[in-house]
Specification:
104 residues
Length: 104
């Protein structure tokens, strides 16, 4: 909850930072619960990477759907420079299901 108190540059950068911190912390907690409570093996780096990407991509998908959709300008400010093949995306990418966060 403390990540909501942190401000990083403009509103989009701050929002992206908050999303990344909170979703990453929640994934770490889930991984720990799986290992300790469910007694699963330690997750591999590849599995953690893939689950993190899926988590962030699912979060990106929440921004453009239904009644809970936020303003298009805020979505654009939040996710700019972190989308895979951003230059080749259609103008209405917010409502496309195939937009993915990329690393690299």
């Amino acid at each position: 909850m403390a990540c909501t108190a942190i401000k990083r540059g403009d509103v989009g950068t701050t929002r992206l930072f908050r999303i990344l911190v909170s979703e990453s912390a929640f994934l770490i907690w889930r991984l720990r619960c799986e290992r300790v409570i469910q007694e699963k093996d330690l997750a591999s780096a590849r599995e953690i990477h893939n689950r993190w990407l899926k988590t962030i991509n699912n979060r990106l998908g929440l921004d453009g759907y239904g009644k809970k959709a936020i303003k298009k300008s805020l979505v654009l400010k939040t996710w700019q420079r972190v989308l895979k093949n951003e230059r080749n995306l259609p103008k209405n990418w917010i409502w496309e299901a195939e937009v993915l966060v990329g690393i690299g």
